[in-house]
Amino acid sequence: MEIPLQYCASEVESKWYSYWLSHKLFASTPDSREPYTIVIPPPNVTGVLHMGHMLNNTIQDVLIRRARMKGFNACWVPGTDHASIATEAKVVQKLTSEGIEKSSLSREEFLKHAWDWTEKHGGLILNQLQKLGASCDWDRTCFTMDEERSKSVIKVFVSLYNKGLIYRGVRMVNWDPQAKTAVSDEEVYYKEEQSKLYYITYKVVGSTDEWLTIATTRPETILGDTAVCVNPNDSRYKHLVGKKVIVPLINREIPIIQDEYVDMEFGTGCLKITPAHDENDYTIGLKHNLEVIDIFNDNGTLSEAAQLYVGKDRFAVRTEITNDIKAAGNLAKVEEYTNKIGYSERTNVVIEPKLSTQWFLKMKEIATPALNNVMNDEVEFFPKKFKNVYRHWMENVRDWCISRQLWWGHQIPVYYLPNGEFVCAETSEEALVLAQEKTGNKQLSLADIKQDEDVLDTWASSWLWPISVFGGITNPNNAEINYYYPTNVLVTGHDIIFFWVARMIMSGYEERKQYPFKHVYFTGMVRDKARRKMSKSLGNSPEPLELIEKYGADGVRVGMLLCSPAGGDLLFDESLTEQGRNFTSKIWNAYRLIRGWKVDTTIPQPEYAKIGIKAFEEKLCEAHTLLEEQFANYRISEALMTSYKLFWDEFSAWYLEIVKPEYTCPVDAKTYEKTVHYFECMMQLLHPFMPFITEEIWQNLAQRNDGESIMNIQLTAQSMCDNATLELYEEAKEIVTGIRHVRKNKQIAFKEAVELHAKSSTIHTSSFLPIIQKLGNVSSVFECTEEIENAVSFRIGVAEFFIPIAMAVNTEEEKQKINEELNYTKGFLAIVNKKLSNEKFVSGAPTHVVEAEQKKKADALEKIKMLEKRLQTFS
Questions:
Q1: Which of 713, 589, 600, 734 is nearest to 651 (CA)?
Q2: What is the pLDDT of residue 178?
Q3: Which of 73, 182, 214, 826 has the lowest CB atom count within 10 Å?
Q4: What is the topology classification, in CATH, of domain 743-872?
Q5: Where are the extended beta strands (E) located within 235-282?
Q6: Would you say the C-alpha torsion 219, 220, 221, 223 has a positive or negative sign?
């Protein structure tokens, strides 16, 4: 077969992904093997692939492919999230562009539009993941609003309600005026902004010259004021407690009350109380039985209750009311003020604190096992630092507002009776039975009960994801949930540790008394080189599919992982994807080189080839050992670098140079077979990172049967490494490198053989001598006890090597070189001495660490002695 000169990524990727799918190589069913399970963090059904998805899913694919190759029954479950707020906003936007208002539609009509949208766009991001090489079991694809997941969500709601963990109540919630729904505390982010502090005067009733001045950042909310509060310990206002003041513009009389909550140092020490629009004010209002006046409509405009500025936007009113207060003579002053403003994570609009009747889930009880079992490492976090972040949130967890004022989502399974009471049931039929029992009225019909209009928070479905994808809620003892659950690892961004990770752990212990995953690997954020978060608005986020088209999927995967430290932010640099593409070219060129060798079964195997094979065998063993440790600790980037260096540095730069035949000469059969074997081994190691090129080469290295794939070839278990052999091999490589430097500096052509004289070295008796002779074109190696005249030298540790040359040696140049090395070694020795003179280090560090430093000191002293003696020869 003629091998193309260049690797064609697009052709190879299309060919092998179709092959994998057609042979169902990603499929998994329970069997006798140990399972290895990952559930994908479901992307929004409306979403398209971005760099965060690329990183997260590349890591998952690396883990699942490696698990397959280690003999596990690997199952990677894909799916999408219905994303209530985001999807409803998209559908409303589409309808508006068609001249249709949501308010003109019935719920059923709107949901038809939403389902049409979902069916049209829902599979896009999953198809894009296939371009990346994601080896999910696509037949298992789930959707958080498909029938099975919907039944699971409703069943759990009813169960939690019956346990007394879900309740309905009036609370101060985070209101999103754009989405027109409540959002949870975790869906609010805060930005520090430059605001203004308005000092407004309230006239004391019955007095001609007495005023109270309050300070507020939100002058528009004075329209909802129902009291002014002072601290009982504040002597400035004691005489006014019990009196009333007049709210400017609307002339409402409100009481002056006292409460120790008031900070006497803030502003004037007088606090306006607006119970409907501030959580702390609401608490004080309950305590003092104050009137609650809600001055905002759901869309953030002022309501009839405000009396003024009705129908106008809250921020427009802020400017207008400030001017009106000033005109009325009630604006004392305005100061610059820095404060934190809450924004909706979904719509990026300023959150409005608002009293609302919502559904809540009690969190304290279900949080306890989820907290304890992370802190004791039953569930392990990688990196560990996120344990403290998790602990802080879990110890301060608040009840979860789980209702949303939307139509797209799981409708809350609560049904209201004509008398205002309600029942909770999985179906309307069950609800009717409960309603009849509750009222004693058997004549009630379905027409008499009405389901709650709200839907559940999206996270209230995805928190069940590791269980519901295996049918573990509706059928708790089915074969799949018992086999695949708990899953092995969750790979996710640390930004959703509260939204999703913590809640999944809670639901795992609540529903199955077991963790949902053993490990959680937190990826960092994808940022540009300037450390800015990637976003389309900044124009700093490349188009993932364009990257794949330009550099190939393998190149992009390698590039992303090269700049992705474990748990740290990925500072994306497109040049690294170019490096990834170059690596695929390096692999392809090595493949072409080996396949281009002519094999002669009659010639004996050279000694240097035998030694090179033995050495690479140990290097392969060393890499296997290192990879096991790196994967065990989710140091994926380091694992890639280990594999990368093994191929590029060890196999290509050294092994192939050792064993390759002379130009136009054939290679012996044993060396060729071993070389092909090692190439296969490295394709196996690289396959999780670079699935396409490794499959292409593996399939063509030998005759394969239809349906075979590299992904199902088990990684060979390695024996213990021979460290003595590795040390000798590394020494031989250093000597060859030294010889090459001399040749380069003195312009000695490789075809010109050189002699090598070794002092304080046993290399002349080393089994690796044939390698040195071949790669350095060394004619002879001699042992010496003194410096060689008219020779260029180099040092490796305490050993010194000389290469005699025909031309005279530049004495000054040699002296300068020795002095530079002498100064460096003395500096190194000073650092080691400082460490060894530190009593805390010597007494506290492990013995082997201290011994290693002492050896460094002894070696440095010996080297200094040798260098100084060498300098004397030039005096």
A1: 589
A2: 92
A3: 826
A4: Helix Hairpins (1.10.287)
A5: 244-246, 253-258, 270-273
A6: positive
Q: Matching CATH topology for 9-156+462-527 and 556-721?
A: no
SS3 453: coil
Q: Which of 848, 772, 825, 762 is nearest to 803 (CA)?
A: 772
Q: What are the tens digits of pLDDT across the range 240-265?
A: 999 999 999 999 999 999 999 999 98
What pLDDT sits at residue 531? Answer: 78
For the chain, the domains span 9-156+462-527, 192-349, 556-721, 743-872
Q: What percent of the chain has pLDDT over 90?
A: 78
Spatial contact of 862 and 760, defined as CB atoms under 8 Å apart: no
595 closest CA partner among 649, 667, 663, 690: 667
3-state secondary structure (DSSP) of residue 200: strand
Residues 190, 177: Cα–Cα separation, whole Å: 16
As to burial, measured by CB atoms within 10 angstroms (0-12 exposed, 13-18 middle, 19+ buried), residue 283 is: middle
d(CA 727, CA 611): 14
CA 537 to chain centroid, in Å, comes to: 21
Mean pLDDT estimate for the chain? 93
**Rounded Cα gap, residues 645 and 826, in angstroms:** 32
Whether 721 contacts 622, CB under 8 Å:
yes
- The CATH label, of 3.20.20.140, 3.90.740.10, 3.40.50.1100, 3.40.309.10, for the domain at 192-349 is 3.90.740.10
Query: What DSSP character marks residue 385?
Result: T
Name the β-bridge partners of 519. 380, 489
The answer to whether 440 touches 420, Cβ cutoff 8 Å, is no
Pairing of strands 450-451, 778-784: unpaired
Q: Which positions ≥6 away from 645 have C-beta within 8 Å? A: none
Could you tell me which CATH number the domain at 9-156+462-527 has? 3.40.50.620
Residue 810 amino acid letter:
N
Q: Residue 848: exposed, middle, or buried by beta-carbon count in 10 A (0-12, 13-18, 19+)?
A: exposed
pLDDT at 809 over 80: no
Residue 842 structure tokens:
């010597």
Distance CA 531, CA 385 (A): 21
Element spanning 761, H or E? none
The strand pair at 188-204 and 211-216 is best described as: antiparallel
Q: Can you say whether the dihedral through the CA atoms of 436, 439, 441, 447 is positive or negative?
A: negative
* Nearest by Cα to 72 from 24, 31, 36: 36
- Tell me the two tokens of residue 163: 């346990």
- 417-455 per-position pLDDT tens digit: 999 999 999 999 999 999 999 999 999 999 999 999 999
First-to-last C-alpha distance (Å) of the chain: 65
- Between CA 95 and CA 643 the distance in angstroms is 52
Give pLDDT tens digits for 811-838: 777 778 888 888 888 888 889 888 888 8
How deeply is 80 buried, as exposed, middle or buried, from its count of CB atoms within 10 A (0-12, 13-18, 19+)? Answer: buried
Q: What is the DSSP letter of 238?
A: G
